[in-house]
Design brief:
Largest sheet: 4 strands, mixed
Distance between the termini: 34 Å
Structural class: alpha+beta
Number of strands: 4
Radius of gyration: 12 Å
Number of domains: 1
Number of helices: 1
């Protein structure tokens, strides 16, 4: 895995937080085969803005939080 390429993809995707409707968090995930992914958490799949299928050559997986993320 190319760490700098993955870091660049994560940095690009992090710009979606607060800029794309519903996106509240971005992080690194993993496919069942171990391939890295860019995981994007949204408050609601129905209300999320458009997101690409991949960024920087890594698959984007959209996950629903069920509501806003709050610090505890």
């Amino acid at each position: 895995m190319n760490e700098s390429k993955l870091s660049a993809a994560l940095a690009k995707a992090s710009g979606w937080v607060g800029q794309v409707a519903g996106v509240v968090a971005v992080g690194q995930g993993e496919q069942p085969d171990g391939a890295p992914t860019i995981d994007v958490w949204v408050t609601s799949l129905a209300e999320a803005g458009p997101l690409p299928d991949e960024v920087g050559g890594y698959a984007v997986r959209v996950r629903e939080t069920g509501g806003p993320i709050k610090a505890q």
